[in-house]
Design brief:
mainly alpha
Length: about 100
């Protein structure tokens, strides 16, 4: 009689393991995390690009040859001195 309703179990070594599947909540979390990672990389890339663009706008002039040899020792090599040129006039509406 084959209709007894019992299933024959396979031996423990023959059992095929199926890959784990994500639940609906797990898929939503994975998509949100992926989207956040892409957004974070985009913001970091844009920030690096803007910083590089602003840093490239700084123009340097070599003044060491023009000042002569009687100079003090450079205590901070690699630093940048930035001169901002402009006017601070308070003549018009900004008085």
């Amino acid at each position: 009689m084959s209709g007894t309703g019992r299933r024959r179990r396979a031996p423990a070594g023959d059992k095929e393991e199926r890959p784990a599947r994500l639940t609906r909540r797990g898929r939503i979390v994975a998509w949100v995390a992926g989207g956040f990672a892409v957004l974070l990389l985009g913001v970091a890339g844009a920030g690096a690009w803007i910083y590089q663009d602003l840093d490239d706008n700084i123009q340097a002039a070599d003044l060491d040859n023009k000042l002569g040899g009687n100079r003090p020792v450079n205590l901070s090599p690699g630093s940048k001195n930035i001169l901002v040129v402009g006017s601070d006039s308070r003549d018009r509406a900004n008085a």
